[in-house]
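Need the bound structure for 2'-monophosphoadenosine-5'-diphosphate, inputs here:
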Amino acid sequence: MRRFGLLQYPEKESLSKKIFNQYFKLSSINAKYDDIVIEPRKFDTKVTEYLESYDGLNVTVPFKEDIIKFISPVEDAREINAVNCIYQNKGYNTDWKGFYNSLLDTDLKLPILLVGAGGASKAIIYGLYKLGIKHLILVNRTIEKANKLKDFFKTKMEIIVEPFENLKDALKRSKTFINATSIGMFGESFNFSNEDLSNLHLIYDIVYNFTSLQEQALENNIKLIDGKTFWYYQAVENLKIWGIYDEVKFYETFVNSKFN
Ligand code: ATR
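Answer from helper R.:
Posting the output first, comments after.
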């Protein structure tokens, strides 16, 4: 049996475990996908064990940077300094590629406002850069983290950082809104009014569950790309890297699981 898994901390049942295992079953692939929890202080001693015993791995917070010294990152993963997929000792970043692919058929309207400055935002900014976007408004609760990202991408894009208090104001001026924070994951809400969203053509919300922001997008007829779709596109890239991608069967698995 082939073994795949997700390196994570703390323990959280992943969408990857749920959907990849359903996919293996539907496609008669003899494989299993595990959630693997490693305590951060034990990461350096434990990780090699998993790199040896698993056929393919995903990596999530807080290990996407720590993993790099144990594998060989491909060029884009090195450039972003984050790896979320491993195969045969090579490290890939499928987050940016998934984000990029999810927007290939979308006419992105400017200005674009991104909220959040964590690991996901880094992959998203790189994806936007690859889509040819040259300007971005970036808002984050902790402004220092937004400034760090601005600096990180300074040769690739002009990023205007605005404080969190300006979020609604920036939103009113934007046509595309990307939420890369965890707001909505535990029931929190941005508390935007419909008026605040009236200029928008697209809301991209990376949170996996159905958030009030996503509900508002649908109510206001604003095109919505949700977190499960974001997950799907990066998952496709993982399966391709691991050499076990069947387009029809994976799409079928995803659609069946999306509403369950
Ligand atoms: P990920 O890898 O998914 O990006 P992360 O690195 O933990 O995860 O980043 C989480 C993001 O959500 C951060 O931008 C965080 O803001 P801070 O940088 O200020 O911590 C943002 N976030 C989480 N909860 C939030 C909240 N209640 N209000 C505003 N921003 C929040």
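Comments: The two ends are 27 Å apart (CA to CA). The longest strand covers residues 2-8.
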